[in-house]
Each structure stands twice: as C-alpha cells, then as structure tokens.
Amino acid sequence: MDIKSLSLEEMEPLLMELGLKKFQVKEVFSWLHQKQVESFDEMTNISKAGREALDKKFYINFLKITKKLVSSLDGTIKYLYELRDGQMVESVLMHYQHGNSLCISTQAGCRMGCKFCASTLAGLARNLTPSEMLDEIYTAQRDSGEKVNSVVLMGIGEPLDNYDNVLRFLRILSSKEGMNMSLRHVSLSTCGIVPMIDRLAEENLQMTLSISLHAPNNAIRDQMMPVNKRWNMDELLTACDRYFEKTGRRISYEYALVGGVNDSVDAARELGRRMHGKNCHVNLIPVNEVKERGFKKGSKESIRKFANILEGYGVTTTVRRELGSDINAACGQLRRQQALEGES
Ligand code: SAH
Fold first, then answer.
1. What is the Å distance from ligand 1's center to 245 Cα?
2. Ligand 1 centroid to 117 CA: how many Å?
3. For residue 34, what are the contacts with CB-CB under 8 A and spacing of at least 6?
4. Rounded distance between C-alpha atoms, residue 154 and residue 118, angstroms
5. Do strands 124-127 and 107-109 pair parallel, antiparallel, or not at all (unpaired)?
6. Atom 13, ligand 1: which residue's CA is nearest?
7. What are the pLDDT digits (tens) for 46-56?
8. From the alpha carbon of 117, which atom of ligand 1 is closest?
9. Residues within 6 Å of ligand 1 by CB
10. What SS3 class is residue 247?
11. Contacts by 80-88 with C-beta closer than 8 Å and gap 24+?
12. Packing angle between helix 130-144 and helix 163-174, nearest 10 degrees?
C-alpha cells in the first residue's frame, strides 16, 4: 500500500491496527510530508518493531530524476521523472520575484487531444497517484535545494480527468502536518470538463482555477480542442461564472496565440466582447511550437495588439513571459522526446 497517498485521517486506523499510538501516526505523517524521508528506517522516533510492521504493509513512493535541464537564460529547471512502473512525467521549476513556482503533471499522458499540445500525442497511459504528485514537489525541492512556494497543475495531463487523486493531493499538500501550503498558492488548469468544474466549486477551495480557453468562439475552439465538442464555450463560460459566484475566486483564462488561427483582430474583439464585465484575467501565451503540430507562434506585434484590444474592452490582460525556452520547457515536450528516443 502507498502510504504517502493517505491523508492523516485515513492513516490513523491503519497504523493503529499495526500497534502505533495516535500521536505516532502524526509523527509518521510528518516524517513523510515534512522531513520527506525515503525509508521507514529514517523514522528514528518510531520503535524498530513499528518500523518493520510499517515496512511490511506499506511502501514509500519515490521518483527518479531521469533528466534535469537548467535554462542558461533564466535558471528554469526542468525535470523528467521516472515513476515506479517506468512511466515518465515532467515538472518545471520557475523563479519569479514573488517566489519559486513548480509546474507539475497530473497524468502520464493525456486523452484530451488538444491539437497544439505535445502531451496528448500518444494518449493517456495512466493517472498519477497523490504520492506521485507530491513527490514531484518533494524531489524538486530536495534536488534544487530551493523551496517551492507555489504549485501550478499545468504540466502533463488533465487534472479534472483525475479528480479524486488530485483532490487528495491538494488536501495532503495543504494539511498543516504536511507542507502546509495555502491553496491560494495553487492553480489548477483545465481544458474545460464542465461537470467537474461544478463539482470543484462545491469543494469551495481557495485555489485559482485556470481555464484553457484559446479561442473566442466555438468554430475556432472546435478546431483546436476536441473537448469543446462535448462541452461548448457557452456551457464552459457559464460554469465558470457559477464557480466564481460560489467561491469568489477570480478565474484566469489562458489563451495561446497561434498565428493565423486565433490571433486576428476580429478574434480579439470577439473575445473582448465575451469577457467584458467578467471578473477575470486573460493570460496570453505565445504558442510553443511543437514539431508534430505545425502551429506557428503569432508575431510579437500581433500579441501586443491582441492584448491592447482586450484591454480596450476593460479585460485585465497579461502576456506570459516565456521561461526555459532553450530547454523545451513546454508541456509534454521532454516526455515525448524520451519516448521517441526509446523507439529508435
Ligand atoms: N489539461 C490542462 C492542464 C495541462 S496543459 C489544461 O488543458 O489546462 C497546461 C497549459 O498549457 C494549458 O493552458 C494548455 O492549453 C497549454 N499548452 C499546451 N500546449 C501548448 C503549446 N504548445 N503552447 C502553449 N501552450 C500550450
């Protein structure tokens, strides 16, 4: 059994069955999530018999760093991790003035099929467990010697397609006996699985919800994102309004500008009209060119112009700074490359 995926409440009866006292369960939890040990033997305040019983019933998950790339432009670090069964995922550690942010994966692969994304090219292999998501953070911290101050669920995978594990991960991450990270420092990004957005709203977490919008209307979004055929933009945007009403958290919309596809003046105006009056934030991203996808980045001028038009509609707009552009830091590119190298 995977002990690092258990919340403190879940751990309690299981460990007490093995003869541990209630206060010791807390200690085990903090060994795992604060001191982040890799073996039961390191839990020196637990008796030898207790440690042996734990070792018999549970394993402590760990990730292996298969590749580490450091950007010479901005110090961004990209990790390619190997999971226990040989699957690979990526995390990216970015340095900002306000602290260090880690972008983590939530699935090995993805089944959402977005046309511009490298993560989905080979489909979904499997969901990540809570411990694997936590270990993306713990391993990056240990290796880099830097503290992770905020976490974005924007790596490989669709977090709302792995709902239960992601929620469990968030609970452990924010528990005071664990890393004690405020969920205000966490963003979850989704391509728009509407029923799960409603479910998430009910959890009433103080997390930021990011929506990968990428288009001003259904005609364009249908071409880019198959999920739009299941839940269209109107359904998505009304679910987002409900989310805001319920949680009071401002939604962030991601818009990757693809030259000749969604970056025209008309597209900007249409988006401006739709977003006008919403309490939201639009983040424009120059699309990362993925070899297999054939999409091209919009020009710097077209991005600036797009932003100006949106601002003209009173929409708060930012243009994302590109980090780690020399190390293939975009979503899924390293995992993809490794898989291709394995084939040849
Ligand atoms: N599945 C989730 C989270 C993972 S993708 C989602 O769709 O939001 C994280 C973000 O990277 C999303 O906004 C996604 O649309 C964007 N993205 C994927 N491929 C990209 C590319 N080639 N260039 C720019 N952004 C990309």
1. 25
2. 6
3. 177, 178, 179
4. 13
5. antiparallel
6. 212
7. 999 999 999 99
8. 19
9. 112, 114, 116-117, 154, 158, 189-191, 212, 254, 256, 285, 287-288, 290, 330-331
10. helix
11. 80/334, 80/335, 80/338, 81/135, 81/136, 81/139, 83/108, 83/128, 83/132, 87/125, 87/126, 88/335, 88/338, 88/339
12. 50
| Cβ atoms < 10 Å from Cβ of 120 | 24
Ligand 1, pocket-test mutation among 110, 154, 231, most atoms within 8 A of CB:
154
pLDDT per residue as tens digits for the range 134-188? 999 999 999 999 999 999 999 999 999 999 999 999 999 999 999 999 999 999 9
Give 329's pLDDT tier (boundaries 50, 70, 90): low
Give 45-91 pLDDT, tens digit per residue.
Answer: 999 999 999 999 999 999 999 999 999 988 999 999 999 999 999 99
Q: Which residues participate in catalysis according to the annotation? A: 90, 331
d(CA 171, CA 179): 10
Q: Strand 99-103 to strand 88-96: parallel, antiparallel, or no bridges (unpaired)?
A: antiparallel
Identify any residues that bridge with 69 across adjacent strands, giving them in sequence order: 78
